[in-house]
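All the exercises in this workshop are built on plain-text protein records. An example says more than a description, so a record of this kind follows:
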Amino acid sequence: MYTDKIHDIAVNTFEVTCYMFPLEEWELDDAEHMTKPDGSIRSIVKFDGAAQGSMVIDPSEDLLSSIAANMLGVDAATEEEKEGALCEIANIICGNTVPLFAKDERICYIRPPRIADPGEDTDQIFKEMAREDIEVYLDEGIANITIYYSSEDDNDQGTDS
C-alpha cells in the first residue's frame, strides 16, 4: 500500500543526504552481483501517535560504509561512525514516511533511532502489525527497508462517517 511512496522517500533521502543514486532499470541486471544485506547491522526507529510501528533499515556492508563516508566526508569511517550515520539516515527516512499514516493533521512521534541487538527478531516483535518491504538499489549498494505499522484508522475500518 505504501511501498512505492516509501521507496521514493528513501531514494530521495539517499540522494540528498548521501549523494547516492538509484540504479537505472538497465543497471538492475548487474545488481545481482552486488552484496546483499545480511542483517548483521540494522537500524530501528520506532514511532507512535497517529500510527504506531517501527522502521528497520538493513544495508549491505558496502552501502553502510558509503553512507558514513559520504555523510561525514571521510575516506574510511569507524564502526561507531557507520552506526551513527545509519541511525541518522533511518531517522530521516522514517521522519519523512510517518506523515503517510497521519490523517486529519494527527501527529506521529518518532523515537530515537538505535542499532538492533544481534539476533533481535523484528518480525516476531511486530508480528501483529501490517508490514511493507522495500528494496532500494543504489549505486553504492542495497538497502532493505521494512516498515511495521498500525494506524488509528486500522481500528476504524468500515466505519465511514
Remarks:
- The chain has four helices and six strands.
